[in-house]
Amino acid sequence: MSEVRALPSSGFATPQPRAVLTLLKPITWFAPIWAFGCGIASSGQPLGPRWPLVLGGLLLAGPMICGTSQAVNDWFDRHVDAINEPDRPIPSGRIPGRWGLAIAIVWTAVSLVLAASLGPWVSVAAAIGMVLAWAYSAPPARLKRNGWIGNLAVGVSYEGLPWFAGAAVMRGAFPDAHVLISLALYSLGAHGIMTLNDFKSIEGDRRMGIASLPARLGADRACRVACLIMLVPQMVMVALLAAWGQQVQAGIVLSLIGAQFVLMLRLLEAPQAQAPWYNATGTTLYVIGMLVTAFAIRP
Fold first, then answer.
1. What's the mean per-residue pLDDT of the chain?
2. Which of 76, 133, 176, 221 is most buried, most CB within 10 Å of its CB?
């Protein structure tokens, strides 16, 4: 294994608030918050007196559980980040000592307490999400070492579990089969989105023995696999929407898939260079399709 650059020391006794916020990566909160919103939409229930639960769920999905997963990942990836992204809070020393681990542990506990206040099914979803967050990054499981399994865990955590929680909050009960099928398909498709996120760290992943799909398959093959994984579940969703009598919504989702396919042609020309661009364009179309589906399956 190649030599890893030593992590810098820091003169801060405690981390600065801005560094902590950077560690929790607010930009990543959008995906689970959006998925939670899809759960709300798919429930078919009016907000009414459930506003406090909805706000609590949004806080749980984004700043708490997603924020925790980012802190956990950065702590256990601090040596990889020293190669790929040395300016991150932990390798740069802005989060000194073992503060990164402490923040992850405290945020985990607070998240589970908040989830318990939102109902039993939300609590179950949060507990599963936390198990996946720690298993993805922390040894001995460290699911991220296998791009197939790790990306599926992230897809479920970012799309499926928040969607489930949103529907459960609104219904006060276990979501129905249409919701479960839809969130499962979009969680699977998110596997491809997670693969695109790994293009930025190919060098460090290979040096540290992390078998992300780009590191394992190479950029070109990994990109083709990612595109296929994103497209197939959405096509299945279109067929199901049509079978459930939602032809208009099926047509809208199909048109969004067509637009994604056009963008994928450009992505395939230069996967590493175009992955960030696709995440800002094609992924946006993907999540719009999620919301269209959510409204289509309301009882």
1. 93
2. 133
163, 297 in Cβ contact below 8 A? Answer: no
- Eight-class DSSP state of 25: -
The C-alpha atoms of residue 212 and residue 217 are separated, in whole angstroms, by 8
Q: 143-148 long-range contacts, Cβ below 8 Å, gap at least 24?
A: 144/73, 144/210, 144/212, 145/209, 145/210, 145/211, 146/211, 147/195, 147/198, 147/211, 147/212, 147/213, 147/214, 147/215, 147/216, 147/222, 148/213
The answer to whether the pTM exceeds 0.85 is: yes
For residue 56 the two structure tokens come to: 């609590």
Say how far apart CA 293 and CA 249 lie, in whole Å: 7
Angle at which helices 120-137 and 99-116 pack, to 10 degrees?
160
Q: Is the pLDDT of residue 30 over 90?
A: yes
Alpha carbon distance 32, 193 (integer Å): 14
- Write the DSSP string, 202-251: HHHHHHHT-B-HHHHH-HHHHHHHHHHHHHHHHHHHHHHHHHTT-HHHHH
Gyration radius (Cα) of the chain, Å: 19
Contact between 188 and 170 under an 8 Å Cβ cutoff? The reply is no
Contacts of 12-18 with C-beta under 8 Å, sequence gap 24+, read: 12/93, 12/94, 12/96, 13/96, 14/96, 14/99, 15/89, 15/94, 15/95, 15/96, 15/99, 15/103, 16/94
Give phi and psi for 146, each to the nearest 5: -120, 110
- Token digits for 8? 């810098």
Measure the CA dihedral 184/189/195/197, to 10°.
Answer: -90
Q: What is the pLDDT of residues 153-165, one digit of tens each?
A: 999 999 999 999 9
Largest CA distance in the chain: 63
